[in-house]
Amino acid sequence: MTPQRRAVALATKGFMPVDEGDALHAAALLAAQAVPGAPMLEVGSYCGRSTVWLGDAAESAGVVLFAVDHHRGSEENQVGWEHHDTDVVDPRTGKMDTLPFFRIAMHDAELEGTVVAVVGRSPLVAATWTTPLSFLFIDGGHGDEPARLDYEGWTPHVAMGGILAIHDVFPDPADGGRPPYEQIFLPAVESGRFALLSATGSLRVLRRVD
Ligand code: SAH
Ligand code: MG
User: Fold this and answer.
1) How far is CA 52 from CA 43, 116, 149, 184, 186, in A?
2) Cβ neighbours for 37, distance < 8 A, ≥ 6 positions apart
3) In ligand 1, which atom is closest to the CA atom of 72?
4) 170 alpha carbon to ligand 1 midpoint, in Å?
5) Is residue 142 annotated as part of the catalytic site, yes or no?
6) Under the phi-then-psi rule, with left for phi > 0, alpha for psi from -120 to 50, and beta for the rest, what region is 42?
7) 94's torsion region: left (phi>0), alpha (psi -120 to 50) or beta?
8) Could you read off the pLDDT of 48-101 as tens digits, one per residue?
9) Residue nearest (by alpha carbon) to ligand 1 atom 13
10) Ligand 1 centroid to 44 CA: how many Å?
11) pLDDT single digits (tens) 13-63
């Protein structure tokens, strides 16, 4: 990643630590080698922080990165919750709107030729999705239901040999919320369709093997 792009990632609001962003980037490059030409997809972009790392990898692989988010925030981003930021509330609606932040991040990172924002509810988009993916990153809603729906709706679209990356996987409940672990990571491994490749912080990288 260029120093300029890295600077944009670091200046963008969000929840992606640098070492995990770098691991995400490496995983996306690995996916592009395994499944050349197939697009990548991120569920949960927020202000575009992780999207900069993934967009850079997609650009170098010559593929498109779809960035799916309704930009209204997850439960834990709402007023009164731990990860709320008043800067991302649209005063006209009183609702969160991270799309303007996402847009400026993609502009500043010069990724508008690679990243395609899909603004909508994840299950709604997944329901009509048909294109095989080389790389899928799930970092959307972290409640039981949203996590389960993301697992069910998106993981079948990972091409054989492609990569599934999951964020905020906490096997120890003391470290954080359970749904990404219980509703996405465990079912993926237990299904026999995915094998664990690596772990960096709360990021888990799996390969589609069946
Ligand atoms: N990957 C980001 C953080 C994502 S936070 C980073 O690196 O900083 C989770 C995001 O998921 C929020 O922006 C929220 O709007 C989105 N999200 C949660 N549930 C969703 C759903 N059902 N459909 C679409 N987006 C959703
Ligand atoms: Mg996350």
Assistant:
1) 14, 12, 25, 24, 28
2) 62, 63, 134
3) 15
4) 18
5) yes
6) beta
7) left
8) 999 999 999 999 999 999 999 999 999 888 888 888 899 999 999 999 999 999
9) 46
10) 3
11) 999 999 999 999 999 999 999 999 999 999 999 999 999 999 999 999 999
